[in-house]
Amino acid sequence: MRHRPIFRWVTAAGLLLVVLGFVVWETGPDYPELELVELTVLEEEPDGTCAVRWTDPYGGGQRTGPYRCDPDRDPLLKDTTQFEWGSLGWDVGHVVAEGDLKGELYDPDVETAADRAVSVSDALTVPGVLIAFAGLVCGGVRTLLRFVRPTVWAPLTVRRAERLREAARGAVREHERAVRAVRDAWQPLHDARVREELAAVPVGMLRWSTTPLLPVAELRRHGFRTVRDVLDAGAWGLADTTGLGRRTAEKVWSAARRRADEVGEDTWVRLDAGLTGPEADRLLTALRVLVQAGPEARRAVEEAGRLIPELDRHLVTARPAAELRLLLVTDHEGRADARAAVRRLRELVAEAERSGRWLSFLQTSIDLLRGADADPLALSARADLASRPDAYQEQLWHVVRARPMLTG
């Protein structure tokens, strides 16, 4: 999912409110200049409401008006009956020193335009600071989680994916070992059967292999009766024995080699009671491992062969998410790819566990680890062949005709 910078916008909104509050405070009306004066309290209520008289310092003479006295000032300043000038009280206040209200008594309890501007500025600045702070904190936490969360969960996913890959590789590796054992045991038997077939192919069959026609009469005159005779002599042996030119001898030998390949494709080693000897025992013993593992092992190996490349690809991409050191030096696109790879690995591991594929890889490796060249096993394999010959023939066909699996 694409990352949305929500908290960046929250922080930006908070900073915008702070800037607007500053602008309102900077451009709003200022408080007036004030001058301190002494106030004579003419009347005073218990709540501090007073009628006062003051001398206008700007030539306005004696002036009177309402005022809000300090009700908590010293009692001596409220009641002066003990003094000779009577019961008048005393307080201090300020008068406006500029503008149209110059000389007027300034009452701080009366809201002015400057007060309203300050209130608006505070209403914008205080929430703006809180919103910006919340955006910075939440954004920082989110950024930290984006770095820390992959390094907490991704290593576990990567390790499990690596174990799954090793299980799949183990199944493929043991299957290749078992198949290689069958091929190694089958090849001498097949070569011997091919040589028998070539001994029955007359050398005259090579005459029409190339243009111009090959001098097979000259070959017969020097004792080469079958294709096997030609192969056994080799190109240099033909040239030396028959007196043919080197190039002609090479053409004859190449024609014999092609004929041998054709015979090899059509020749099959039949598994039956007549197949005896150490090579036959080796072949049956090797085949028995695959037969006992069954077709389930072959299917597990095929699934492992399809799964391994995908695991390899995603494990390479997911590596930065599993190591904090690599994550810090990876760009944004690389981190996104790593997180996507981790998610895909998690899906592959979960699917392998849910379908039992992981367990089948391990079981296949165990089943294919059997096998040895001991005589008792060869006897057991012959007995097993007698009970299910088709299973042995099918396994041999798959091994001989299938291409080897490349695991890298």
Could you please describe the fold and organization of this structure?
The chain is α+β, with helices and mostly antiparallel strands and 408 residues long. It folds into three domains: 34-111, no CATH class; 150-189 and 270-401, no CATH class; 193-266, DNA polymerase, domain 1. The chain is built from eleven helices and five strands; from the N terminus they run H-E-E-E-E-E-H-H-H-H-H-H-H-H-H-H. Strands 3-2-1-4-5 form a five-stranded antiparallel beta sheet, with no helix packed on it. Helix 6 (278-322) runs antiparallel to helix 9, helix 6 (278-322) packs across helix 10 and helix 10 (375-387) packs across helix 11 (389-401). The protein is rod-shaped and about 160 Å long.
Which labels suit this protein?
408 residues, alpha+beta, DNA polymerase, domain 1, 3 domains, five-stranded antiparallel β-sheet, 11 helices, rod-shaped, disordered C terminus, Bifunctional protein, membrane, transmembrane helix, DNA_repair_Rad51/TF_NusA_a-hlx
